[in-house]
């Protein structure tokens, strides 16, 4: 429950003081009933009208978080583990992650309170590219990696073709670093893909989400997306390209 004047002010239609004035003047209705009492509390689903116009309840906000390893992609956890919203404190809006990264995966995670936008980006048919860098146990050869490029059978079906690039390998330590780009978002997909070719992932980081990178951020840091980036992400999801 929040105070009516605060909700009106947050919606951007008036300052807190002006909102109080509008309430006193009888210009505000909650669920169709005029309200003139300043202390009135409202819930997230109450319909609020100011001078006959329904307000948008919250500003839509968009953040890019560099999720550290050892953090749950959720807004709360009953086992009291760290959650991604712990890294975005001081934000009034009720934001949540767009999709998820595993507890042990680090990297780009978008956070928003715009459900329509989140659904758009997560919808499988919109095919947003996500690039991961994986440290593997062992060194797969070209032919083996080619299986991932073609699509590989997992227990929940064939994967779509991926882009795969060997970045480095260390024979002595028997490990390699491989970059992989996929546009699907199945549960633990990258880990399962490498497992399927016999090279388990030891460490995983999402370095890119569409055209967005982690540039300028350390693990645990976040920044707001610019309005232009939000617009470009929408365009990309809706049309498959940036124009
Ligand atoms: N694939 C995975 O295996 N884990 C993630 O967190 C994201 C993609």
From TrEMBL:
Ranges for domain RNA-binding S4 come to 2-65
Please tell me whether the keyword RNA-binding is annotated for this protein: yes
Q: Does the keyword RNA-binding apply?
A: yes
Q: What is its EC number?
A: 5.4.99.-
Which enzyme class? Answer: isomerase
Q: Which UniProt keywords apply?
A: Isomerase, RNA-binding
| Any one GO molecular-function label of the UniProt entry | isomerase activity
UniProt similarity note: Belongs to the pseudouridine synthase RsuA family.
NCBIfam families, A to Z? pseudouridine synthase
Q: What is this protein called?
A: Pseudouridine synthase
Per the UniProt entry, what species is this protein from, by scientific name? Bacillus seohaeanensis
């Amino acid at each position: 429950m929040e105070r009516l004047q605060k909700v009106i002010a947050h919606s951007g239609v008036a300052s807190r003081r002006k909102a109080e004035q509008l309430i006193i003047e009888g210009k505000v209705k909650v669920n169709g009933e005029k309200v003139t009492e300043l202390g009135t509390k409202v819930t997230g689903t109450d319909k609020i009208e100011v001078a006959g116009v329904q307000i948008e309840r919250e500003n839509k906000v968009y953040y890019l978080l560099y999720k550290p390893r050892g953090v749950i992609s959720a807004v709360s956890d009953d086992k009291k583990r760290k959650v991604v919203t712990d890294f975005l404190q001081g934000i009034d809006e009720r934001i949540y992650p767009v999709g998820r990264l595993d507890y042990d995966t680090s990297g780009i995670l978008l956070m928003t309170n715009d459900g329509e936008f989140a659904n758009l980006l997560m919808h499988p048919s919109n095919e947003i590219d996500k690039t991961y860098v994986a440290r593997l146990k062992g060194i797969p050869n070209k032919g083996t990696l080619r299986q991932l490029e073609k699509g590989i059978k997992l227990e929940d079906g064939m994967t779509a073709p991926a882009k795969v690039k060997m970045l480095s390998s260390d024979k002595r330590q028997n490990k390699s670093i491989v970059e992989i780009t996929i546009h699907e978002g199945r549960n633990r997909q990258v880990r399962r893909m490498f497992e399927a070719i016999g090279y388990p992932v030891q460490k995983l980081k999402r370095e890119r989400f569409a055209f967005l990178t982690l540039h300028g951020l350390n693990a645990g840091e976040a920044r707001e997306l610019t309005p232009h980036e939000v617009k470009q992400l929408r365009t990309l999801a809706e049309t498959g390209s940036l124009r």
